[in-house]
Design goal:
8 helices; five-stranded parallel sheet; globular; alpha/beta; three-stranded parallel sheet; 15% strand
Length: 267
């Protein structure tokens, strides 16, 4: 085996990635901290809010692309701040122009500014338009298994159910719905929103999610770079635990971990 050969790749939109941690670029103090955190995370896919971050649309301002170059990372333009299907589609068409035809995008259409819960009706409508336009759509959605399946059937390349509300740090509130989505999906399932600390990321991966996307949990930590490193390890550990297959849960166990035959005083 070659030293860097990855036997468990994440495949999204026909491309292979060795990291299963996707990371956002908002809420950091500056681009230098963004760069350091992204590097510590080991992430290869980095998501960018087109409405909030300069990636060239404002030529007289510093560009995120100077800190996170597209030659090194797969940029994932997202539609954070969009509340209608039309706004989301318009934003991602702009991103494609700014990034020279880049087609892998993250769609999110929000329902209200207080909870940032997804508007699934407009999400479905925008997904249909974007897929027809040739975009490879990764889509933020609720943890409703029916909606997740409909988004997959539309042609989205990954479904991204929330663990809990964006920025809440509440962790996975409904693991049962996530399990239903995972069991029925034929595309990658990426937990998006709600992760607060490393254990949340590990649990998501232990459930069988293909990847985890986060921003606030890293960017607003007391030490974002150290938290990014912790999240990297948590995602890797969770994935390995899922692949290994955990032992069954038992209320009581009469099976000792060490053999009892041959013990002193035993026949």
């Amino acid at each position: 085996m070659k030293p860097n050969e990855n036997l468990d790749p994440l495949i999204i939109g026909g491309k292979s990635y060795s990291s299963r941690l996707l990371i956002g670029t908002g809420k950091y103090r500056d681009f230098a901290e963004t760069k350091a955190a992204v590097e510590a995370s080991g992430a290869q896919i980095v998501t960018v809010a087109i409405r909030r971050t300069n990636i060239g649309q404002n030529p007289n301002e510093p560009s995120l692309l100077e800190a996170i170059p597209p030659s090194r990372y797969t940029l994932l333009p997202n539609t954070a701040g969009c509340y209608t299907a039309d706004d989301a589609v318009r934003t991602l068409r702009l991103a494609r122009e700014l990034l020279d035809g880049h087609d892998l995008v993250k769609l999110e259409v929000l329902g209200d500014p207080k909870t940032l819960y997804p508007n699934v009706v407009d999400t479905l409508a925008a997904a249909k338009t974007l897929v027809k336009d040739g975009f490879k759509v990764m889509v933020y959605t609720s943890d409703d298994p029916i909606i997740a399946k409909q988004l997959e059937e539309i042609g989205c390349v990954a479904v991204m159910p929330l663990a809990s509300l964006i920025g809440s740090g509440m962790g996975i509130l409904n693991p049962w719905n996530l399990q239903i989505i995972i069991e029925n999906a034929k595309v990658p399932v990426v937990v998006d929103a709600g992760v607060g600390t490393a254990s949340d990321a590990a649990i998501a991966m232990e459930l069988g999610c293909d990847a985890v996307l986060m921003n606030t949990a890293v960017a607003t930590a007391k030490d974002p770079v150290l938290m990014a490193s912790a999240m990297k390890k948590a995602v890797e550990a969770g994935r390995e635990a899922w692949r290994a297959g955990r032992m069954p849960k038992k209320l009581y166990s009469a099976a000792p971990s060490s053999p009892t035959s041959g013990m002193i005083g035993k026949n």
